From TrEMBL, chain B:
Gene3D superfamilies: MetI-like. Keywords: Cell membrane, Membrane, Transmembrane, Transmembrane helix, Transport. It is found in: Cell membrane. PANTHER family: OLIGOPEPTIDE TRANSPORT SYSTEM PERMEASE PROTEIN APPC, OLIGOPEPTIDE TRANSPORT SYSTEM PERMEASE PROTEIN OPPC. It comes from the Bacteria. Belongs to the binding-protein-dependent transport system permease family. It comes from Veillonella magna. It is a multi-pass membrane protein. This is ABC transporter permease. The chain crosses the membrane at residues 36-57, 99-125, 132-154, 160-179, 217-243, 264-285. Residues 97-286 form the ABC transmembrane type-1 domain.
Amino acid sequence: MDYIWQTEGITKEFNTPGGIFSGKEKTVYALNGISLQQAPGETLGIVGESGCGKSTFGRVLMGLYAPTSGTLRVGNQLIDTETARKTLHHTFQMVFQDPYASLNPRMTVRQTLEEPLRRMGVKEATVRSERIRGILEQVGLRPSYSERYPHEFSGGQRQRVGIARALISNPSCIICDEPISALDVSIQVQIITLLERLQTDTNISYVFISHDLSMVRYLSHRIAVMYLGYVVEEGTTDELYNHPLHPYTQALIRLHQPIAPRMPIGPVPQGEVPSPLQKPKGCPFASRCPEKEERCMEAWPQLTGNDVHRVACWKR
Amino acid sequence: MYSKEDFLPLQPMRCDESAELITRPGPWQRLKANKLAVLGMIIVCIMIVAAIIGPWLSPYTYAQQNLLEANQGPSASHWFGTDTLGRDLYTRVLYGARISLAVGFVAAAINLVIGVVYGGVAGYLGGRVDRLMMSIVDILYGIPLLLYVILLMVVLSPGLTSIFIALGIAYWLTMARIVRSQIIKLKEEEYVLAARSMGASPMTVLFRHILPNCMGPIIITMTLAIPEAIFTEAFLSFIGLGVNAPMASWGVLAAEGINSMRSYPYQLLFPALAIGITMLGFTFFGDGLRSALDPKEGGTK
């Protein structure tokens, strides 16, 4: 099977600079060996708590961050240099969380959409405006809106502009970094429907980063669950939701059931997410796991299993 | 009573594409609509024109003395009166406008060129470069302007040149700090990230996405810097470190006027008025310019 992209053991560390007064340099371990891949036309959902590294992973794919170690392949090409990373925007584009912040307030929609076209080398102004017209219609906006500034739109419309900007350079994969969590519920549905329709029309792939489990379930073909910079479980949507194996995934799904009166929700992970400043010696979830054993504290379990379902847990 | 027709779904509205086209006033129209800004612009223009051609229209020169006509009040032959040496005050105020405005514009240019670029580079690159560049700014900030000017006197004679050099050393510091802080804030914005993720070069990001969005603070800082520089020149001239007699800037004229404030108040009044009106003009104009360049203000009309 040909994948659009494939990562192997991607890690990303951030160093907070040490100074005369701020003491020693600290390292934040944001990603600890992410190995994932994506098939064309598929949607890969990435779920996890805030700070689990899902956005960082999206930005590594986008080439905004250089991974500390590990490899990223796009098609057959190995992306290992800064020059190669600069070409990633041909494959990937991004839709951001906050439609109020992700559009330049001083540029009209036309100017915003023209920029990627110019960079692609579309010189003729008529070709550019034709393309902008087409893309605005595709995302459900009137072409006459192109002379408007972002503040003259509603949140949903802005997010449509954001999607149009990602779409206009014909990428094969769009990284949606929590694209709906800043929107009203009714608008969320519109945007999801739009993303779905675009996928049917153009066979584009999505990396859908979210903490909204029901939306991820609705939209994704495969799902990866992240915790503290690790992928703890990965599999097809049906398999993962129907037979969650990792205690963390089980808890997430259980906690996301509609709340009914007096219905027991089972054990809830206690305590806080550990600090990403230290790499845990054993399983990252061990400190909160209801089923932890001696060996969970000793060594980190590998992500094992088959193509349909992989899990990183000693007990599965 | 309701009829059945009241509950029919609405017909899809016929949408006239041309009706959607909104005509938005451009920056120039918005500036023109702002009365205070227009007033400020007129004042600034009049001052510039007067400074350039004014002295030629006067029958007197700025240095011409006539002791027989000393300390005369405003009259038909001497519009602003004369000073203690019988020099025509009108000519001297117009001549002073040249020096004061030149100082103001030099300060503005220094602010724009050195301040914006320096602060922009420091803020955008961040990290070590930023720390080094800002340490230099901090050190320069710590040395009072007066000290530069006095030290410059060792090499140069007092005069406009040393004032310009002193302004060149000191007048971009505030701008550099403000631009840097703005850029540090803006470079984390998602639209900057979006531009970078679309493959925009650092120069495009800086000049197309970041700098236009800090135009407001830049223009405000600049409009504040111009009157401040004019004041600084006036102050330096006042204490004798500025332009030499018989040249006259507004500061020198005001200093001379203060000596005879009780007996001949007009000698202070006219230079002071000139300073005050010019500052008001610059402030109104600058504020108008800032809101005219901001697409969020004014909106659709």
